[in-house]
Amino acid sequence: MSESLYLLALLACPVGMGLMMWMMMKMQRPSAAAAAESPAETTVEKQAELIKLRAEIDQLRAERRDDSKPAGWAL
Known about the structure:
Elements: H1 2-28, H2 32-36, H3 39-68
């Protein structure tokens, strides 16, 4: 009985690791809904998001530039 518990404890680690690896691989696969979208749709969406993010970066840089100027200086 003691030996079977030892064997069970010994096998729990590799079995658990294999289960976790299988779950991680399963999560990384694209779902059926994502696979149904055409590549053109995803490209257009990514380009729109990129334009939006670049505009946000430009806005933040402008705010940072304005904040770094001393109040009494006029350029």
